[in-house]
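#lab-general

N.A. 3:47 PM
ok so I finally got the sequence cleaned up, no stray characters, all 450 residues accounted for. can someone with queue access submit it? mine expired

B.Y. 3:52 PM
send it over

N.A. 3:53 PM
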Amino acid sequence: MSVAVDPEIAAGLDHFRTLVAGQQPVWPDAGHLRRVTDTLGGLPPLVVPTELESLTERLAAAGRGEAFLLQGGDCAETYADANADRVRNKVRTILQMAVVLTHGASMPVVKMGRMAGQYAKPRSSNDETRDGVTLPAYRGDMVNGHAFTPQDRIPDPERLLQGYNISAATLNVVRALTTGGFADLRQVHEWNRGFMTNPAYARYERTATEIDRAIRFMAACGADFEALRTVEFFVSHEALLLDYERALTRVSSQSGLPYDSSGHFLWIGERTRRIDGAHVDFLSRISNPIGVKLGPTTTADDALALQDKLNPEGIPGRLTFITRMGAGTIREALPPLVEKVTAQGGPVTWVTDPMHGNTITSDSGYKTRRLEDVLDEVRGFFEVHRAAGTVPGGLHVELTGDDVTEVLGGSEEIDDAGLALRYETLVDPRLNHQQSLEMAFQVAEMLRGR
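B.Y. 4:20 PM
back already:
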């Protein structure tokens, strides 16, 4: 799948090293980092070019309104949680949400996890101070440990290699689940087993019953359901640690194009989207479908410049804009971007991230979000596109398949006191399983209205 890299291509891929690269760890030993990245460079790819081509086609369909992207998973994966049960719970939640969306909107859903690589996070400061002690900030398990000790907080290049190995193991579980029968659409009832006490689960069960009835009808008509046994499932993460992403870049033996084998879909964060920065330059040179997070300060000219740099050939499905404006801002900040990009730019798939613009601190001190604010940003996203005559192409959400209590509200009415019951995230708060299903039902209604 990979061949020797042409010197000219290699020089282009390494050009980012001459540019400003934000949000990078301060590695204490450059030689150690180089030895680890050399090792990574010789390891097998985690994904292959044919999968990237398929995803690009699916994202192009979402951009045209012929499909809808559902992208979900942890804010920051941890090595400790990379076990089969946790992976299964996340996959199951995404599958259940996709069933709700497909059934409710009669539309194909592109299923994608924020997983098998989401081990690094940008931070507002390089350092953290507690009780007069200053240590490097926690930047995710691929960089350092969460425990506030000098030993844990020193960036360690060996964690990059550990991240590759855990990503590979996670991908093995994902592929086994999605091709080995777990994802069979005839299992819709099984996915809900043990979750019948909440209104969101009861509503899901009614949907599952309708699907089951339709399947039995088609079976009676002689339909072949082999295609229901498996699903396409893609993985994604923020391409933050450029040394890791560069080490996992390969050249396709078929197309001769470089691709980043660390994941199917990679995105550039709001804090690293400088048009003259290292992240934009590096991702402009790989052939993966890519995304860019656009916050409320983004101008229409910023968006057009990113389009020109990241998708100069105007390939449908190549570029996704993931807007993260905040519920109180999206209806004013998004229209100028959509209107100008539509009028002057090439093809783009518009996706909403309703999580990051709605982060608050609760009275008890927890970093949290209100489910109603999250849903209101999604509603605003749909309203803007409906008014502009453009396509709301997808949903990018931080979620877990576990019954955590990190986001306020929902049918369980999680309040400030309830946050302490199971607040488990190390970085940003996530929707739990039932809140994710509640969101899916509401988004399905918006899609029907589209």
